[in-house]
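Summary for the funding panel

The consortium committed to producing paired sequence-structure records for every protein in the target list. Below we show the first two records in order, beginning with the earlier of the two.
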Amino acid sequence: MTVAVLGSGPVGQTAALLLARWGVPVVLVDEHVRRDPVGSKAICHQRDTLDVWAALGAGCLAEEGLTWTTARTFHRGRELFSYRLPDAGSALPPFVNLSQARVEEVLDGLIADQPLIDVRRGHRVTGLTQPGCVEIDCETADGPRRIEADYALACTGAHGDAVRRAVGERLDGVSFADLFLICDIRADLAGWAAERRFHFDPPWNPGRQVLIHPCPGSQFRIDWQVPDAYDLAAEETGGALGRRIRAIIGDRPYEVVWRSVYRFHTRLVRRMRAGRVLLAGDCAHLFAPFGARGLNGGVADAENAAWKLAHVLRGLALDGLLDSYHAERHAAAVENAEVTTATMDFLVPRDEQGRRYREDVLTRAAGDPAVHALVDSGRLAEPFWYADSPLTTPDPLRPAAGRPPRGALPPPGPGVLLPDVTVPGGRLRDLARRGFLLLTTPGVASAGLRSVGIPVGGTLGACPGEAWLVRPDAYVAAVLSEPSPADVGRALRRASGDAAG
């Protein structure tokens, strides 16, 4: 009963720790002998990602990260508007900024203390086969090695071509023409520490965009959109990079901590399950980073995969439950691709009509608050709702209403992540992550499941006589009115992957 987790970036680390938390032995495979701690890389971590890490014992990440609550948007140097992120009644902040290197360091510490995780560094995956199990071929400094496991979760990132080829998949989609220059700088910028700043067409980067994120330790991450022919080395040699930075921060001391140039992509695999292999994170999908949907979406992949693999391996569900991993997380990837593609089309219009539309929106937004919603600098990462999942029992009294406006939360109901509610026994999300949980209003029996009493009304808006079935990833699987034990059993079987319910 072993799962091989391929790749030990934050998504693979999270998956390994979640599986071990369920009691599943893990072989964690990575091609790198040691970590590269340089550069901020993925920095923007959403509340529900922090919640998963806190459940694993990494609550310090929310505490160490720099919390930002305000997003400001500018056009040609003039502020158009700002908005505050909703607090959602949670003890966790809506977003924190913290370098990927620090996240990896903390998660590595937890992995080192977990006896169920066997870490194999310096193992480059070259291929795999599935002869009734998963056989993973690796190249190491000591020659070829083969690892066998019951299932594999591939978190090998954008460059995980060997795994994708082995299961007949590839990342299909588009690459954007413009490049983006990213610099981490250290400087004293008073008043900028709790704000994300987005500039459309600033005078110091005409015709393109700049994004500024605060980070701990008086560091700031600056992203410039630059032309395809941009030459970082030439700009550094000629002093243009320094002038570029000073145009933003003024004549004050600063230090360049890290810099790099990226091209952004929107690419997806067709299937996130291929037999005994599940694909997760950047191995399965690539998004432009505006909105921070890459790493945050990958952690959601990891939690979705982990509880399902654990339930199958422990005999609590049939193998068909794993089909719902693709159904749910591929739908999430498609939505993330649509959201980030729309953002890139606004940032970098494809034609003259798009350019005229963007200019019209930005011009009108300066004086008309009704236009602010049309300004697209990236809809921030949020959980995907599984209203259409085969695991979800629909409730005619709570039909799925689609995505709420930017910054708003949907009402609780089937397919929605449980609000971060505290009850006498603790936080409901923590209780749910121990296995299926039934929330019961007064007078409703538990039907033999672990149960917690909830009041009528309250944060969930529960009605008298209702029972709420919650999945092990804290999503609501069903809301049942005056349920019999048979009703609860059918919803539980459906949420466990039994299509017959």
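The next record, for a separate protein in the list, is shown here:
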Amino acid sequence: MTAYALGNLRRPARLDDEVLTYMERVQATLDPFGGRFLVHGAPAREVREGTWDAALVVIAFPSLDHARDWYDSEAYQRLIPMRTRHMTGDVLLIDGVAPGYEAAATAAALRAAQAA
């Protein structure tokens, strides 16, 4: 099942050269694990609810194991400080949903669990 690495990163006023170097090198750390960018820091064009002041990063992986192995890899661990010294934020790894997923089926299961 596809899994994702999500980054909710707050951009500094000016991107440090070290962050730009991180960006130049990160794809090479993703490639061995099948990681590919789906969203990479594009500005939010329309904030429909709440507020948004961060740069969103979404990276897809073939599985959660692939995502974990990438994040824990020596190559990526060496890059992390280049970003974290200059940007704050949150990073998480999360499973996607299976093909054919329906929110209504999940709601039905939750209703049944609450009724029990």
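Regarding this second record: Strands lie at 3-10, 36-40, 55-61, 88-95. Residues 28 and 40 are 15 Å apart (CA to CA).
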